[in-house]
Amino acid sequence: MNTPSPITSPARTALAAAAVLAVACSITSSQASPPLDLGINTPLRPSTGYLNDYLRADDPYMAAWNLGVQYRARYEIKENGGATGAGSGTDFSAKPGVANDNAYLLQKTLIRVGYTAKWWEAFVQGRNSSSTSDKRPSTGALPGSGAGPESDGPIDLHQAYISVGNHKEFPFSVKVGRQELSYGEERLVGAFAWNNIGRVFDAAKLRWQNSWFSGDFFTSRIVLPDDNNFNTPNDYDYFSGAYLTSKKIPTMQTEFYFLARNASPQATAPGPRSPFTVGTARDIYTVGARLVTATNDWGNINFFVDGAYQFGHYNDPAIAAVGARGLEQKAYMVVANGSYTWQEAAFTPKLGLEYCFGSGDSNPTDGKHETFENLFPTNHKFYGFADFASLQNLHDVRLYSSVKPLSRLTLLAEAHLFWLADTHDNFYNVGGARRGGLAATPGTGYGINPGYSSDLGTETDLIATWALSPYASIEVGYCHFFRGNYVKDSLSVIGSKDADYVYLQTQLSF
Fold first, then answer.
1. Mean pLDDT within 297-320
2. Pairing outcome for strands 327-341 and 368-369
3. Nearest 5°: CA angle at 347, between 342 and 353?
4. Among 252, 254, 251, 256, CA closest to 216
5. Would strands 201-209 and 152-165 be described as parallel, antiparallel, or unpaired?
6. Predicted confidence band of residue 382 (pLDDT cuts 50, 70, 90)
7. Do 469 and 442 touch, CB atoms closer than 8 A?
8. Is the dihedral of CA 399, 405, 407, 408 positive or negative?
9. d(CA 4, CA 509)
10. Which stretch of 11-15, 224-228, 290-294, 397-401 has the lowest confidence by average pLDDT?
11. DSSP character for 365?
């Protein structure tokens, strides 16, 4: 087992520069009124952003307005997992001449204006997303510009919606326009906020809320990022569903969901610039349930279980002559998580264990597609911070622990054990794309090799988050992926190495 490689001198210099920039921005903000408290052991008060706090303090009627700017900068260093060659197929490769390292700066600015009345709400949010020195393929920028797949500028419409209703007086409300969709933990549907662009939909949503349950019923089209052009939805990729939540089971919250993704063949190429285009046509239906503890009733214990089954059809272009409707979709996933927090102990330690399973395809030629469809998740939160895996053909055992040595400082450590659910299927990347096709020359790349080990490897993550104030935070992380026998076997001829990922992020909320 390899040991983590040291951070190079340029990497240390870049991280130091980013840290100085973050602290400088925070100190600059502290010179404005109200003052910024840089105390590291003083609990933070709730905040809706500097501008909102300032305006509402002088005029209570300003509470109807939601004004603000959020700025985030993150410097990332990826060694042997930068996906700068032929996509994620070069991860862990030691082949001479393959550019497999990457270091770049991501910046995202969100500007919002909203107004909430008794019976309606209007909200508009603009976004600028830029990247510098990114070697990954761009999404429409000029070649060599350094603008990779997380660049979308100079400014675009992130959200713009109207909501009508008041659940205190009437059980129904309607929300129409460009908006984020986020349900459960975001394992299947999320805003993907870690990404420098994020994810939004042009959607219409009806909410029904009463004493028994609350339910969202929606239909939408995914919006495709298009750098230097106005973002538009994919007119051939529809995502609809119902998500119901009830607290009638004592001490528990129960969630039921039905999700439908219907993408026609035209959806596969609505434009060449977007990193979120659908890979194949599909009509996939997901039915599932999630059971979560009510924290106040269970004290220091938290746990949840989540399970889903999928049916429908999946058109796999890698398999010839599968018929007009493609393969029959038959897949499922299961997630179980339990944790214990010592609330009264020093540093408030927390210890948790999680198991995740996403089914794989046991026979690619039997007319069935058994690989779980991950839909529109925020995978970064669950399957390792280095972003090598998704909930497809995967077993993941995750052990995690956190402590708060200071009220504003949180330290998190995680360890992941990964292996394939079925060696007759591929190793899928964080975006749900397969590494390799139905076959690969042994030892020269990823593919389907049933004789190989299912052991993908182990990832360790160390994350520190420091809340400087209600308006500023800094986060730094280091991740190392110890490649397993599957990776070593797949790249045995060309060679392989472990991967490292380091980042430093600062966020300001004005």
1. 85
2. parallel
3. 50
4. 256
5. unpaired
6. very high
7. no
8. negative
9. 35
10. 11-15
11. T
Which residues are within 8 A (CB) of 429 and not within 5 positions of it... i.e. 6 or more apart? Answer: 87, 88, 91, 388, 389, 390, 435
What count of other Cβ atoms lies within 10 Å of the Cβ of residue 131? 28
Round to whole Å and give the CA distance between 258 and 46.
35
Q: Is the dihedral of CA 78, 434, 137, 283 positive or negative?
A: negative
Quick one: tokens of 43? 């609990």
pLDDT at 26 over 80: no
Q: How many residues does the chain have?
A: 510
Distances in Å between the Cα of 154 and the Cα atoms of 125, 149, 227, 344 are 14, 14, 8, 49
Three-state SS at 448:
coil
What is the rounded CA–CA span in Å between residue 377 and residue 430?
Answer: 10
Q: What is the mean pLDDT of residues 92-105?
A: 90
Q: What is the DSSP code string of 412-432?
A: EEEEEEEEES-TTS-EE-TTS
Among left, alpha and beta (phi > 0; psi -120 to 50; other), residue 94 is: alpha
Rounded CA separation 439/386 (Å)? 26
Give the β-pairing of 394-406 and 409-420: antiparallel
- Between the alpha carbon of residue 345 and those of residues 150, 300, 417, 462, 488, the distances in Å are 41, 11, 29, 22, 43
Please name the amino acid found at residue 305.
Answer: V
Supply 331's token pair.
Answer: 């897949």
Main-chain dihedrals φ then ψ at residue 49, nearest 5 degrees: 110, 150
365: alpha, beta or left, given left = phi > 0 and alpha = psi -120 to 50? alpha
Q: Using one digit for the tens of pLDDT, what is the confidence trace for 192-216?
A: 999 999 999 999 999 999 989 999 9
Residue 148's pLDDT band (cuts 50, 70, 90): confident
Preceding omega of 154 cis (within 30 degrees of 0): yes
How far is residue 482's CA from residue 65's CA, in Å, rounded to a whole number? 49
Residues near 489 by Cβ (< 8 Å), separated by ≥ 6? 443, 449, 452, 453
- DSSP conformational letter for 55: H
Average pLDDT, the chain: 86
pLDDT at 346 over 90: yes
The tokens describing 368, both together, are 């069935």
Q: Name the β-bridge partners of 336.
A: 305, 355
Omega before 96 within 30 of 0, i.e. cis: no
